[in-house]
Design a protein that fits this description.
Elements: H1 2-20, H2 30-36, E1 67-68, E2 77-78, E3 107-110, E4 116-119, E5 124-127, E6 132-133, E7 140-146, E8 150-155, E9 168-172, H3 185-189, E10 205-214, E11 231-243, E12 248-260, E13 267-270, E14 273-283, E15 299-308, E16 327-338, E17 341-352, E18 360-369, E19 372-373, E20 381-395, E21 411-422, E22 426-435, E23 444-453
Antiparallel strand pairs: 1-2, 3-4, 3-6, 5-9, 7-8, 7-9, 10-11, 10-23, 11-12, 12-13, 12-14, 14-15, 15-16, 16-17, 17-18, 18-20, 19-20, 20-21, 21-22, 22-23
């Protein structure tokens, strides 16, 4: 009976399958599907993702500098990225001035009442007791006053310079010192001040400068009618090279000097060689602006100038005594910009290795205004910057114009000029300097400076 039941189910199932190939299948009862199959429902097969179509790689766009136009008639120009060292203009260097002390190639005498007397060659001059001479003499006449017999005349021996005369004397003017030359040491030293065509920022450049000094040391002509004016011509050749990424530089200056005036002073000589070491503690680059004005560019620097007595030795053989030492001149400098205006300062102290020479403090301040700039960079004259400078020279010793062997005084002078930017790498500075404090050590200075950056 059980076997019969099983066979009946199998036959019914096979008949239903065969019938379903040509007819619509009967709906399956859930109870039979669960009871007979008892298998887990099949899991759906994941459909593989369609691979992305290959694309051609694109070249990244190269950023371009913005192009700025200042007006319908102006040419556009490129601006460098902010923070680079691109500079819209190179600021002018300090123009400088000349520092002198009193000196005369003629015999001079300082009387007890403070009068300075010049004794020309062939001239006889009676001098009172206690007079100090600027030269050592060995041929003079003593004048001794005796209450009974009056003035007694005697032959004097050697009287050293700087020694007060023991009696009244009668002296004849000797030939002028300077048959082999002779002018104040600062003239022969040349461009030894840090402010001579120099700026606080280290720069790669070569330069040449010409300075003309009219009526040098005019005090030596006082009381000497017909004595020619002494003029000085000076050419300075120099180079500056940066290192440490442009934050430091080393420079060299060598002046050539021609002196014209009295026949005993007509001569030419080579000045002293100066070495300049400079380091910028702060060296901010200029930031580009649409109108080409100044933004950024602040500088704070320090360094030293070493001036060796390498030149003009023949010019000092006439001086008594010869004072021509090495100079060490530490300095500090700074630049601050104000859009179209700027200011720069340099201060230094010149310390000689001979304590008979003068220790000087030099302070120089320059104010400039960017009056014109060719923002199209198409013209030869790219910029014009008027400048004004104040120079204050303060001696720490020998502070007396009549002091021997070197007498100095405070000197204040003003410089006015204009700096022209030429092409993309050069600048031409034109100016004049005038002392405004007395006694004047020269009447007028003319300045021409050409700087070429590389």
């Amino acid at each position: 009976m059980r076997m019969h039941t099983v066979l009946t189910v199998v036959i019914s199932t096979l008949s239903a399958s065969a019938w379903g190939q040509s007819q619509e299948p009967y709906p399956q009862e859930p109870e039979q599907s669960v009871v007979l199959v008892q298998a887990p429902a099949p899991q759906p097969r994941p459909v593989p993702a369609t691979p992305a179509a290959p694309t051609t790689p694109t070249t990244p766009a190269v950023p371009t500098s913005p192009r700025i136009s200042l007006g319908p008639n102006s040419q556009p120009f490129d601006l460098a990225s902010a923070g680079t060292t691109a500079r819209p203009i190179e600021l002018p260097n300090m123009y400088g001035d000349l520092q002198l002390f009193r000196y005369s190639p003629y015999l001079q005498a300082l009387t007890p009442n403070g009068q300075l007397v010049t004794i020309l060659p062939g001239q006889s001059q009676q001098l009172p007791t206690g007079t100090i001479l600027t030269q050592t003499i060995s041929d003079y006449t003593t004048l001794t006053r005796d209450p009974n017999s009056g003035v007694q005349v005697g032959a004097g021996g050697t009287l050293l310079r700087g020694t007060p005369t023991p009696t009244d004397i009668l002296v004849d003017g000797p030939p002028p010192r300077g048959n082999a030359g002779g002018l104040p040491v600062p003239v022969i030293r040349g461009a030894y001040k840090i402010t001579e065509n120099e700026g606080p920022r280290p720069t790669d450049r070569a330069y040449i400068a010409y300075n003309y000094f009219y009526d040098v040391n005019p005090a030596q002509r006082r009381g000497i009618p017909g004595l020619p004016i002494t003029n000085v011509h000076r050419q300075t050749f120099g180079i500056e090279k940066t290192f440490l990424g442009g934050d430091a530089s080393i420079g060299l200056r060598l002046p050539l000097i021609q002196i014209s005036g009295p026949t005993n002073l007509d001569r030419s000589t080579v000045g002293d060689l100066s070495v300049i070491l400079k380091y910028a503690i702060i060296n901010n680059p200029f930031e580009p602006t649409a109108d080409g004005t100044l933004l950024g560019g602040e500088v704070l620097s320090t360094g030293i100038v070493i001036t060796a007595p390498t030149g003009g030795s023949a010019a000092f053989t006439a001086q008594d005594p010869i004072i021509h030492p090495t100079l060490f001149q530490p300095f500090v400098g700074a630049i601050k910009t104000f859009r179209r205006a700027y200011t720069q300062y340099i201060g230094s102290i010149a310390v000689p290795t001979d304590d008979r020479d003068t220790v000087y403090m030099f302070n120089s301040l320059q104010l400039g205004y960017l009056l014109y700039q060719d923002t199209s960079n198409s013209r030869f004259v790219r910029s014009a910057t008027p400048i004004a400078e104040l120079h204050v020279n303060t001696p720490f010793n020998n502070r007396d114009v009549l002091k021997l062997p070197i007498g100095v005084t405070d000197i204040v002078s003003l410089t006015f000029g204009t700096s022209f930017g030429l092409g993309s790498r050069s600048s031409l500075n034109l100016g004049t300097n005038v002392p405004i404090s007395g006694p004047r050590v020269y009447a007028l200075e003319t300045i021409i400076q050409l700087n070429v950056r590389y």
